[in-house]
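The step that takes the researchers longest sounds almost clerical: writing a folded protein down as plain text. The outcome of that step, for a single protein, is printed below.
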Amino acid sequence: MSEDLSFKVNRAPVLTLWAAIVAERLGFDHDEALTLGRAVAGLNAYAKGKRLGIYKPSSDSVSKKREERSAEGFEVDLLHRAIHAVATPEGIRATAKGKPTRPASVEKYLTSKFGDNLQATEKAMAVLAKSLPPDELSEIAYQLYERFRPEIPRGVEGWGATGILSLAKIASAGQKLKGPV
């Protein structure tokens, strides 16, 4: 693994990939994990957008979405986010706009964002995920992400911005586990 590799990337694909790797470590298959990872990143982006005033949903639309979600499917807890999911003949899938997310679309998204760095990044994250028992990883996965995610400007200036992702930071996030997370 090339731990000294660093490159510019947006936070959303980093979180998508990390959440997918965590989901696999927790027992979901690869395709299930991809869709769950994408949903985690989507929920985080939406929450940040609301906080920054970029998204302003009406209370009616929020209530309607909650009713629609509870009518079918179930929730999966991943990185302390409640991900709405459904069982399909192909396996569990997170939903987006009421429809199951296609794993192939998540793969395409990750490939387009990471390019040639995808495989090395995936490997570094997998090593980190495997360094912990699943129950412990489930508890601290988001805190680990906060240790290695790309640095971006605060506030609206950081919306959609890229930052440097360092594979060495991913590796060191696991080495710091002896101290408080």
Remarks:
- The mean pLDDT is 86.
- The CA atoms of residues 128 and 147 lie 12 Å apart.
- Residues 30-52 form the longest helix (23 residues).
